[in-house]
Amino acid sequence: MKLYTCLTGPDDETFCKRVSDKLNRGWQLHGGPTLTFDDKTVIVGQALVKEVAGEAFTMDTKISAY
Questions:
Q1: Do the Cβ atoms of 64 and 21 come closer than 8 Å?
Q2: How many angstroms separate the Cα of 16 from the Cα of each of 2, 7, 23, 24, 54?
Q3: Fewer CB within 10 Å, N side or C side of the chain?
Q4: Taking all residues of the chain, what is their mean pLDDT, rounded to a whole number?
Q5: Which residues, listed in sequence order, are joined to residue 47 by a DSSP beta bridge?
Q6: Could you state, in order of their start, the residue ranges of all structural domains in the chain?
Q7: Dihedral sign, CA of 56, 57, 61, 64?
Q8: Concatenated DSSP letters for 12-29?
Q9: What is the pLDDT of residue 58?
Q10: CB burial class (10 A; 0-12, 13-18, 19+) of residue 66?
Q11: Residue 60, class by beta-carbon neighbours within 10 Å (0-12 exposed, 13-18 middle, 19+ buried)?
Q12: Is 27 exposed, middle or buried (0-12, 13-18, 19+ CB in 10 A)?
């Protein structure tokens, strides 16, 4: 099955660590990051996908477990 997630947050080290954690657990970047500015902080978003063999996706699948 293919899983999708999108991480968002301030463009800081914590966000980079969250993306790095996903990459090191087998997730792949899906496109480039997106950035916006809310007059105080740069907010970034990054989509990621992961193929998981031998499973069937259902609406009960807990994506955060991967």
A1: no
A2: 23, 10, 10, 12, 30
A3: N
A4: 94
A5: 6
A6: 2-65
A7: positive
A8: SHHHHHHHHHHHHTT-EE
A9: 87
A10: middle
A11: exposed
A12: buried
Q: In the structure encoding, which two tokens stand for residue 6, read together?
A: 């999108």
Which amino acid belongs to residue 37?
F
Please, are residues 19 and 54 in contact by the beta-carbon 8 Å criterion? no
Model pLDDT, residue 53: 87
pTM summary value: 0.87
Alpha-carbon span 28 to 49, nearest angstrom = 5
The residue written with tokens 């916006």 in the block is 36
